[in-house]
Each structure stands twice: as structure tokens, then as C-alpha cells.
Amino acid sequence: MSKTLQAIRGMNDILPEQTPLWRYFEGTVAGLLDGYGYRQIRMPIVEFTDLFKRSIGEVTDIVEKEMYTFEDRNGDSLTLRPEGTAACVRAVLEHGLSGGGQVQKLWYMGPMFRHERPQKGRYRQFHQIGLEVFNLDGPDIDAELIVLTWRLWKLLGIRDAVTLELNSLGTSEARGRYREALVEFLTAHLDQIDEDSQRRLKTNPLRVLDTKHPETQAVLVNVPKLADYLDEESRVHFEGLKARLDAAGIPYVINPKLVRGLDYYSKTVFEWVTDKLGAQGTVCAGGRYDGLVEQMGGKPTPGVGFAMGIERLILLLETLEQVPESIARQVDVYLCAFGEQAELAGLTLAERLRDQVPGLRLMVNAGAGSFKSQFKKADKSGALYALILGDDELAQQVVGFKPLRGQGEQQNIAWSALADHLATCVVQG
Ligand code: ATP
Ligand code: MG
Questions:
Q1: Which of 280, 308, 310 to mutate to test the pocket of ligand 1 (most atoms within 8 A of CB)?
Q2: Atom 23, ligand 1: which residue's CA is nearest?
């Protein structure tokens, strides 16, 4: 017996019941970003493996154990993108988009791939919407990124369920000084910290701050604070950001342990977290990466950005019952035709209505069928109204206009008046 075909674990189909919510979400974000002057960029899903090693950092979880890497037929090592920033920076450099200090405000959307343990809110193919801004180094743009997400949470009706966590990582010099103090502290407590943290102590000590291990967390209560090692420039930048968030009325908590998983961050880092989704509570995360472009071979170019996880935000919309009712209905009107002459007339009528009523969602019955079976299909389509075309209607040049959701009686409407009627009761109503 042949094995049933299956999708790869952690890689999900998004079924037709779900796509209206995805399109609502993506459309809401796209409209918001248009309103702030951000422009969309689309990068390939596959890049040279080296790109991610150089940008994300060799000793991060992503590069050490999460990448989908393979050799193509030329023997090149390629990787399915685990995140968007690296490819975005690569594209910006390749096409000279940041040359001469040009400001770029970009966004992208699409699938990312990480070989993680699949669970609620954590998948192997997941989707992000990301923003990246180049050549602006002030806290005003950091604030704008946060302000626009704050507006997004309001549009989506989830503002009360998310909290902003903020930290500053300082410049790489400041972080270097802090790293020494941290290593000294952790080395002194080596026997009290978990194995993973012991390993990270050697490779990427800052990540220990991020540990989920309770015993290590207990040790970290007395850990030296990154804030005490901040350089003056980063301190002023951070104060500038906080002042703007205060002015905009956006609440935040300073989380000194927030270090983010990727190597390339500097100064501002932030996460929007929720307690409504269990362990996978970060719905949006980002920060400043002033050294990244140079590290990738470009001129020194300040950068700042973030990415949000679409699956987690969609889960949050569902959990909080913030899925707008209007998106569930995908068909307004269902046209039933009985007999060959009526079918032919129905086809031309439907096409004329599509010309005359922009935005009309009209499904024409296919596959003929009895009264009973066509009405059943009309009902199942979710349509508000059925249009009925049989020999009698044909002779009188009318359609039967039948409300399917209990909004009044069936009536006959002349073909010539139908477009106006639909425009008022379906498209506007
Ligand atoms: P986490 O700590 O949850 O692993 P991360 O720091 O690895 O997150 P980022 O690389 O910053 O995540 O990605 C930005 C956002 O993308 C996350 O905040 C989350 O919403 C989403 N995300 C990351 N990894 C996954 C995944 N495997 N499945 C679903 N969403 C994800
Ligand atoms: Mg992760």
C-alpha cells in the first residue's frame, strides 16, 4: 500500500477557510504602511548560505541548528531564508539603494524557514511582515516604527493584549565591555547554570540572558546590568526614544534581559509580547543594526527594523475574537439558472453586472441541477441573495431576487434595474 502524501511537519497549508483572515491581516498592514510612506520590496526565498552566516552570526540558534541548507546542482550551498533582514540588506547593497546616504523605508512579506520544534505558534515554515529603514540614525525613526505598530494593534483590535518591551544594547564597544563583566559573573556561577548556557558562555554570552531555564534565571537575578555599561551616545539615543514614546502615549517596560537572538543588533531592541498565546508570546520583534551593512561589505549605514510573525498575530486575533464578521462572507450573490436558455441569458447578465457593479462578488451556478440542489449550493456559498432565472423570468426579462438570510420576501426585479439594486443592497449595504 502506498504511503499517504503529507506536507512536511511544521509546514502548513493555509486552507480557504483561513485565507480571508490572512488577506484581511495582510491588507490591513499594507494599507497602514502605505500611509507611512513605506515601499514594498520582494526578495528571493533562497540565498547563498554565506549571506546568513555573515549577517546573522555563526553562533546563533538560527545558523547553528535551524537553517534549511542544501547544495544545488552546481554544488553551491543555498539556504531557505530564515529571516528577511539579511536578504533585504543584500538587495539594498546590490542595487545601490542606500548609496549617497539615501533614506530607504522598505517592507516585505513572505515565508521564512527554520528547523525548530513545531508547536503552537512555532512552525518550520512561517510568515513574517518585516520593515527595514536605512540611513536614519536618530531615535525618531525607532519611535516611528513603534508608533506604527501601536496603530496597527489598534486597527486589529488587539492593543490591550500586547506589551512593549524595550532595551538598549549600546554600541559594540559598550557591549564588549559588558560582555567581559558578564563572562566573569557567569564563570563564577558556572556550576549553577544549565548546560546550554555554559556552552553559550563561550560562544555568545549575551544570549545567556535570554535563557528560559529557571535555575539559570535565578542566578541571573544578580547579574551585572547592561544599562550600567551603556556608552553616552546610546544612552542619549535611548532617552530620546523613551521621550517620544511618552509623548505618543505608548506604554512600555524596560527589560534589561532583552538581547534578541541575532548578533547584528545595536542600541535599540524591542519586542511586542502577549500573555494570550502561551510560550510563543512574542508577536513582533526588532531593533537597530547600525553595523550590519558595513559588516556585509557596504559603507557604514545605520539601519533599524522589525519583523512580525503573521501566524502568531492571526492566532491572537482568533483568541481574542477580533476576526471581523464581514470577512467570512466571500460571495454576495448566487445566480441560479434553470434550463439551457436561462443559462445562456444568465451568463450574459452576470458579465454585464460585473461591468456595472464594481466590487460585486457574484457566483454563477455551474453544473446545472434542480431547484433544490441549486438553492442548496446558493445557501452554502454564504451569499446574501440568490438570483433566479427560469423560463418565466426569461420571458419577462426579470430575475427572481431571493433573500437567503431572512431579509424580506422574494421579488421580481427587471434586468435593467438590477445593477442599481445590487449596488445599493449588496455593495454598499
Ligand atoms: P522566538 O524567540 O519566538 O524564537 P525569534 O527571536 O527567533 O522568536 P525573530 O527572528 O525576531 O524571532 O522573528 C520575528 C518574529 O517572527 C517573532 O517575534 C515571531 O512572531 C515570529 N517567528 C519567529 N520564529 C517563528 C516560528 N518558528 N514560527 C512562527 N513564528 C515565528
Ligand atoms: Mg527563534
A1: 280
A2: 309
- The 10s digit of each residue's pLDDT in 14-23 is 999 999 999 9
CATH number at 314 reads 3.30.930.10
What digits encode the pLDDT tens for the residues 231-277? 999 999 999 999 999 999 999 999 988 987 677 789 999 999 999 99
| Spatial separation of the C-alpha atoms in residues 392 and 52, rounded to whole Å | 68
Instruction: Record the pTM.
Output: 0.93
pLDDT at 429 over 60: no
Query: CA dist 209 to 58, 172, 203, 212, 223, Å?
Result: 18, 17, 13, 9, 9
In a domain, 226, yes or no: no
Mean pLDDT of the chain: 94
392 and 351: one domain?
Answer: yes
| Most ligand 1 atoms within 8 A of CB, residue of 108, 126, 132, 310 to mutate | 126
Where among 319, 341, 369 does a domain terminate? 319
Mean pLDDT of 2-24: 94
- Residue 243's contacts (CB-CB under 8 Å, 6 or more residues apart) are none
Residue 423's domain comprises 329-427
CATH of residue 419 = 3.40.50.800
Hey, whose CA ends up nearest to atom 29 of ligand 1? 122
Q: Is 96 exposed, middle or buried (0-12, 13-18, 19+ CB in 10 A)?
A: exposed
